[in-house]
Each structure stands twice: as structure tokens, then as C-alpha cells.
Amino acid sequence: MAEGDAGTNWEQHLDGVNLPRHLIDRLVIRHLLSEGYEEVAEAFAEESRIRVNRESRHLRERTQVRDAINTGNVDAAIGIVNEIDPDIFDRDQALHFKLQRQKLFEALRHGDMQGALDFAKNELAPRAEMQPELLDELEKALGLFAFPQPDQSPLGHLVRGEQRQKLASELNSVILASKGEVETSALPHLLKRLAWVEQLLKAGGAEFPPMTLESA
Questions:
Q1: Left if phi > 0, otherwise alpha if psi is -120 to 50, otherwise beta: which for 73?
Q2: Which InterPro entries is this protein grouped with (predicted)?
Q3: Helices 161-178 and 59-70, interaxial angle, to 10°?
């Protein structure tokens, strides 16, 4: 069967599936709240005419932490986390190191190569010496100094927005876990299951258009 025919048949099959829109909207809202995107969730809920259920006692704080990380204010994020749980970084020193390392990335984002180098030498290196398991993380950071334009290097993702988002999500998950709150978002699990089902279908020789952001 031609790829075009497979796509047409697949779309016709999907058209016959009745999935209520409000269920999809609720999945999206729960994911946004779980990740700490309070304002985005509220705006989406208002547009969808769905009432937001704030189950987490620390939603506002988690939102503030995410905003601080995404604007490069690492110290503010650390301060908020310490207010939520003063022992969180004692239990997870690797996470604390990643936050400190993010300060180096922020210095590089602003073109402060010397400041970043001094911070790596005076703050990060001593921590890594005491905890050898952190050496790999330090080496990745130091690799940026080999390039005159770190953001254009093979390690450039470390000084771009995606690194901030990755760190903010990791920190959000740790905060939830520290308070005994499980992540309530089912969306990531559904997407992983979708990818798994696609692999099974491909292995079985089924013909269908793969799911993409454009076709989702």
C-alpha cells in the first residue's frame, strides 16, 4: 500500500473515534499544573470553560521556582525551594550542584567568560572534588570554555532555553516528591505509550503515518 493510501485510511479511522474535547482539555490542564505553569493553566481553563482544581499546596511556589529558573535567577529559585523544604538540597546534593552549575551557564549567556571561569574554579570544582560523581557534570560545563561562542558550540544547548526548562522540570519533580505529592499529569505517560505502540505496529509491518507535532 502506498504511503498516501495508508495515511488516508488512518485518518478515516481516526475520524471515527469520538474522544470528548473536554477530556483532552483536562489532560492538558493537569499537565500544566503538575509542571508548575499556573498562569498558563488558568488561561487555558478559562478559554476551555473548565474549573481549575489546585490540588497541590505548593503550586504557587513551584510556579515561582519555574519562573525564576526560566529568567536566569537561580538564587531566587534556591531561596524559594529552601522555604518549601530546608533539607531538600542536603538530600539531593547532585541537584544543588546542577543549580550552581546553572549560574555558570547564565554567566556565559551574558558573555561573562571570566566570571564563569572564576565561578567554576572557586565554587564548582571544590564541590566536584568532594563528590567524584559530579565530575562528569563539571566536565560538560568546562567544555563550553573551549569555544569563543559557547551557544554555537556542540554543547550550546547548555546555555540556551531548553537547559533552563529541563532544570526547572527536574526541580519541580523533586519538590513534588519531597512533599509526598505524585505528579498527576497523565500526558507524558500517554505520549510514551503512544511511542511504544508505534514501535509495535512498525515491528508488525503495519503501515500508518507516524505521529508528529503537525499531525497531533
A1: beta
A2: CRA_dom, CTLH/CRA, CTLH_C, LisH, Ubq-SigPath_Reg
A3: 160
Check: CB of residue 138 under 8 Å from CB of residue 121: no
3-state secondary structure labels for all residues of 75-125? HHHHHHHHHHCCCHHHHCHHHHHHHHHHHHHHHHHCCCHHHHHHHHHHHHH
Helices (H) then strands (E): counts for the chain: 12, 0
Looking at residue 14, what DSSP letter applies?
H
Residue 201 has pLDDT above 70, yes or no: no
pLDDT in tens, 82-101: 999 999 999 999 999 999 99
Rounded Cα–Cα distance for residues 88 and 101 (Å): 17
Residue 161: pLDDT over 90: yes
* Among the listed residues 126, 192, 165, the one whose alpha carbon sits nearest the alpha carbon of residue 36: 165
Residue 216 has pLDDT above 60, yes or no: no
